[in-house]
Amino acid sequence: MVQYSRARFDASFAAISDATRRGVLEQLAAADASITDLAGRFDMTLTGMKKHVGVLERAGLVVTEKVGRVRTCRLGRRRLEAEAAWIERYHRLWAARFDALDQVIDELKRKEESDGRKKRR
Amino acid sequence: MDARRDAEPERAKHRTTVARKSEREMVVTRTFDAPARIVFEAWTRPELLQRWWVPGSLGLKLLSCEADVRVGGRYRLEFAREGAPPMAFFGRYLEVTPPSRLVWTNEESADGAVSTVTLEEKDGRTLLVLHELYPSKEALDAQSGMEEGLPEAFAQLDELLVSLLGDPRAA
After folding, report:
1. Domain A5-76 belongs to what architecture?
2. Does the predicted TM-score (pTM) go above 0.90?
3. Can you tell me the ipTM of this complex?
4. Which of A62, A98, A119, B145 is least enclosed by beta carbons within 10 angstroms?
5. A 36-95: CB under 8 A from B
6. What are the φ and ψ backbone dihedral angles of B91, each rounded to 5 degrees?
7. Could you tell me if A14 lies within 8 Å of chain B, comparing CB atoms?
């Protein structure tokens, strides 16, 4: 499985940029619900609601579980938290190192350029 | 304000990406505006390495740095967070191929990764790819880096979710 932390955050923000999906999250915050329940509540087709839930699921905001013929949805926030926090720690360390490395590299480049000018004189 | 706006695309261009490639592997990438030999120099001269490996921006203070950069040579960087006991990164170099490849072990924990950095130069810029291979899935899952607590980016998303959903405890 590949997880880009930025892509992951972007997916989360994209998922909640839609009014219906925000409504679904609000609904699920109150109680778990089946796709059929959600489709009825938002006056949508089953297929339409499945798509919205799919987006939320890929962003890790919702998890679904099929029991018999019913697919139940619930908030997946806890799992997202752990995963995002874990990968973000990794990211922070390397981003901080590389920003500092940029400064060292800039100095080396400038020194090389000025040495080059001296040699040409 | 204008200067700050101008700096934004620069930062976006040099974004550090992190990906979990498999159960045992992490891959980090970053582009630098310099030829590979300069980037390699900054990784392999101890007096340069010590200036960025323990980033002050994370509240860490470097205490000492030794690096014998040749195959079989050892490195050790000691550092501390304010008011906390000293810690160290240490290990040894397995491969040293200027200016494109460096491989080393991370021995501060028994479950440390083997790290490989490759530098690929194109049009005067260098794409750096860092690959870390852990001995097991558990070793990678347990890897927490040096940062404790909730990261800011996540905290922001969390706040947004809380404002959208309302506080479940208040409901």
Report:
1. Orthogonal Bundle (1.10)
2. no
3. 0.75
4. A119
5. 61, 77, 81, 84-95
6. 170, -160
7. no
